[in-house]
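Suppose you are handed a protein chain with no further information: no name, no annotation, nothing but its sequence. What can you learn? This example shows the usual starting point.
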Amino acid sequence: MPIPRPESQDAHVIAHVDMDCFYVQVEQRKHPELRGLPTAVVQYNSWKGGGLIAVSYEARKFGVKRSMRGDEAKRVCPEIQLVQVPVARDKADLNIYRNAGSEVVSILARKGRCERASIDEVYLDLTDAAETMLSENPPVALEAIPEEVLKSHILGLSKNGGSGEVDVKQWLCRSDADHRDKLLACGAIIVAELRMEVLKETTFTCSAGVAHNKMLAKLASAMYKPGQQTIVPFSSVKDLLASLPVKKMKQLGGKLGSSLQNDLGVNTVGDLLHFSLDKLQELYGVNTGSWLWNIARGISGEEVVGRLLPKSHGCGKTFPGPKALKTVASVENWLNELCEELSERLQLDLDQNKRVAQTLTLHARAYKVNDSESHKNFPSKSCPLRYGTAKIQEDALKLFEAALREFLGLCRADRQGDEGNTWGVTSLSVSASKILATPTGTCSILKFFQGGNPSCSSSKQASEEFNQVAMPLPTQRSESSSEPNQIEHVASFHGDAGSENGGPHPDQIAQVRERWEFNIEDIDPSVVDELPLEIQREVRGWLRPLKRPAIVKQGSSIDHYFAPVKKA
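A reasonable first move is to predict its three-dimensional structure. Written in structure tokens, the prediction is:
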């Protein structure tokens, strides 16, 4: 459900940067001989030449569209070059495109808050950078406006009777413009510079929209492509939305957009201006009605969320038609493949970015035999995510079996009943979400046992603290003791707030004397494996048996090492 967000009264400069047929550009950088040729990237599925997922602008001139398959594209454009998406585990491997997208993001993030919206699109909040430019080096003070900036498309700017670049320069350098448009002019210069840096460092072209909110910036970035940018002044918002088809607006492409068209006769976003706020809220509820009223006026308070990394990881596979999975065993086989890939990406994210995902979710589309509507009803299931390929595979299978029981209305998923072919899975995916950054320092787990504040420190400091604060000592086993391998843990405090010389306070000394014991054989190693690496090393240090020093008493002989033989 769309949520209305009030727009800030302060002026903002928001840019939406969209890469031009990005998958094709990545392949052309990898294979330079493809540059300038009609090219398309196709799916790994070779049926009818594979489905097109990206089409170069050279191929579009011949009428090639993304909805086509490879064979049809060749009939329309015999010269087209079809490049197959890399394949791993019998499914598409998009890592080459993800990595290329990360290159672009690292460049765009140099000038402002950056939100990575997908592999090939980014939002930028350039307000601070534009304010700084306006106060220190405004467009009117520049000796020359970069050529790329002068190629900008400024909505509502009349170009009749003059050069386009001349008109653009005059608009950028207006001294009588209001503060909001002056900021947009600075934003246009900053975005053009960033786009040129992306081109220079990666060879990729991109298009951009510059406006005062995310909604308008995204609309503008798609208006003139490839390798161009569009500016949306406040005065042009009404005209832009007046002619914008309602289905082109984000969140209006589905049922809500159809309802507006069929029930209210709304064909463009501007048509919503004919309805009052009360009427829209009456028809669609308070939230959706308020949101519709806002977008008709170009109002959107959605902020750019600083995020350079993806907010989730997901792996999926489709099984159309006769390829549908019809047994739990076949689903388990594919879940293992998907979970293995997901686990690799999670571990890479942890190693490179120090982030940990919290939630594992399984999505699927399935059908029941003789029930055409059932594919809409397969439930999604989630659970806490446990790191490790085997654990993710185990949990994903449990989620599927729970969803299948609910889908079929069974009390349990009967593997033996698979052969009846009463259901089939046409799509399967697993995803990891709620990804959070791990603490910058390492917390010693001992501090939880001490009852103190589990403050964090660097890994080296934590290691030194561990050696100073606590040492696992072997307990002297009494002859009557029946608990093997017990370790007594004695903790000691070091001066924080205690005696004048930094020694322990008497109350601390009393607390130090508290002991805790555990049986090594009762500790499940798999539990230790789920702890952060620093804590794993620490715990394993406790569990590692300490060697006792060989102390020989004075005057002893080898006889002391042999117990006396008891007489019968």
